[in-house]
Design goal:
15 helices, alpha/beta, D-Maltodextrin-Binding Protein, domain 2, 7-stranded mixed beta sheet, globular, 2 domains, about 40% helix, 3-stranded parallel beta sheet, 10 strands
Amino acid sequence: MKKFFCFALAIMMLSAFAACSNSSDGPAANGDNEVFADGDQYDEIGGELNILNWGEYIDPELITLFEEETGVKVNYVEMTSNEEMLIKLKSSDCVYDMCFPSEYIIEQLIASDLLLPLDMDKIPNAKNIMQDKLEITNSFDPGNKYSLPYMWGTVGILYNTTMVEEPVTSWGILWDEKYAGQIWMYDSVRDSIGITLKYLGYDLNTRSEAEIAEARDLLIAQKPLRKGFGTDNMRASMINGKAAMAVIYSGDAFVCMDENEDLAYAVPEEGSNVWFDNVVIPKSAKNVEAAHAFINFLNDGAIAARNTEYIYYSTPNQAAMDRLDEYFTGSETYNPPKEVLDRCTVFHDLGDFVSVYNEAWNAIKMK
């Protein structure tokens, strides 16, 4: 899942955490029990821990804290796509001890026997993860044997309420001619084709060539209405009031809404994608002990709360949710209700059929 982070937000959160570190109510990097909601104490482990993760997807101060607690030197390497991660983990010289892939990539990694089963005795803080989130991740990692959820969210429509007056309840608004030239689509084959399939009433994991062709033709017909396919550029466009709407990830929408009060977010009634980035340990990991310790560290309630406040993506950790203020917990963008999640589906690995999606995507982008 591509991650986005606003520089202005970084400055704001840096100031907030500086204040928090001097408060007895928040976690402070002092090694005392009060740092951790679960009263954890970490033994000296040492060595190095090589992490592969998305950019700007963890509070860097937490990495420093973990290093101080354990004596482990963390090497944090950023990736730009799930496919890049897959290539690196399949390499014979893979150096990573842990990484954070999305659901359909985890299915491929399990099928390729590239993951180490998690030792749950070494991750007692896994008890903090919400059961309803584990039930969803169980659909791509049966029994959550190889992974635990790190962050999650939905795909929906971010829209400017000064430009879009009617309620955004259907993906069909993306084909409304009155918004011609004001519609951003996400530059991703699974996301753009997936929401179009949902609009047409189909499964976003369909293996029907006829349904894919119908979605392809609808997206080709949308071209005169689109401002373009985008990623980071469309988010800046929405913050600056330069477009009416954009297909976007909920965490990114939450950041944008923090920057522009005229923006709102909706998951259409036809349903959408609910995505999860989970943490896994490759079979080739060299420092398995440190990897388990870091997973346990991330799932401490105080640490998980601090992390989600930094990156603005939704945490699956109930102990963290209990520590967050209403700004997070009361937001349906950050914390969508059950009725929204009930109409959302995770992406699954398509196997060789992914070539049909890619062919359709190439046709859409070439028109």
